[in-house]
Input
Amino acid sequence: MGELALLIPILGVSIPIIAIWTSHQRKMAEMRIGATAEHTAEMAAQYAAKTQALEDRVQVLERIVTDRGYDVATQIEALRDTRDVEARSSGVQMNFDQKEKA
Output
């Protein structure tokens, strides 16, 4: 009986302490979840903005390619043609048949 008399006050003190501790742990977990949710929402908004900006850029590039696709190819070929002409006509033509007069 002496052991039971000692155990009852110990339980009477430890049960409220455990209840307070678990309540505190639950509140801390809820705060962590809330902070994580806010951070996640902020990151999602940033990713959405970046994604929208990239989609806008892709649309512009698609418009450039589809609207002027043939024209760009024609311009590239025209530049190649002018380079060939310039390469053939560059420099001074030498005539070895005539000798210099002194």
Remarks:
- The CA atoms of residues 38 and 44 lie 10 Å apart.
